[in-house]
Specification:
A hairpin with a 2-residue loop joins strand 1 and strand 2. This protein has about 200 residues and is mostly helical. About 35% of the residues are buried. Helix content is about 70%, strand content about 0%. It contains ten helices and two strands, in the order H-H-H-H-H-H-E-E-H-H-H-H. It has a two-stranded antiparallel ribbon with strand order 1-2.
Length: about 200
């Protein structure tokens, strides 16, 4: 990817507009920080532009109902396929689906996805864990009121993601960084004696 990309800028505009009213769970930061950081992680690790753009757009369908056909029309099938694989169906009609069911579906899609899907998910979880650590430093165990899953279930979900990602990416430094970060979170939770 060159230093400047019109496609990346177009994706950034869509993501910034789509997430403009959102804030991150637990820490009151603008939501756009998350997808930008995910794309930056992917860029730093040398992934292709389609993967980097998918990282930037990975939550716009799930969180803001941007049509997947719009993503495909503007950025191509490769980007749309990655975004589709990472999009969680949060509700059925007006009922929210159980957290455990949604996360299990994500793990199954990740298992049957692709190297590119695994890379974006690894960057997503890496930034989520760092954000969670920052929130725990700021708010302590009160942070968990913002989350659906318990600390134990969330930590196990992150471990499961890391295991599947390693199957796709092997001994990639992104996976090593993800493993280290999850391990650091586990130590933080133990030190804080956060209830499971």
């Amino acid at each position: 990817m060159k230093g400047y990309s019109e496609r990346y800028e177009a994706a950034l505009r869509i993501a910034a507009q789509a997430h403009r009213d959102q804030v991150r769970k637990g820490i009151q930061a603008p939501y756009i920080v998350h997808p930008v950081h995910v794309s930056a992680i992917l860029l730093r690790y040398g992934f292709a532009e389609d993967v980097v753009i998918a990282g930037l757009l990975h939550d716009v369908v799930e969180d803001q109902n941007i049509p997947l056909v719009q993503i495909e029309a503007q950025f191509g099938l490769a980007v749309a396929t990655i975004v589709a694989a990472l999009t969680e169906q949060k509700s059925e009609g007006d009922r929210e689906r159980p957290w455990e069911v949604r996360k299990q579906e994500k793990l199954e899609r990740l298992q049957h996805g692709s190297l590119e899907v695994a890379a974006v998910k690894a960057a997503d979880v890496l930034h989520n864990v760092h954000s969670l650590q920052a929130g725990l430093r700021e708010e302590g165990s009160a942070l968990w009121r913002s989350f659906k899953g318990s600390p134990r279930r969330l930590l196990q979900y992150y471990r499961d993601v890391a295991e599947i990602v390693r199957q796709w990416l092997g001994a990639h430094p992104l996976v090593d960084e993800l493993d280290e970060t999850i391990h650091d979170l586990e130590k933080t939770l133990e030190a804080m004696r956060v209830p499971h």
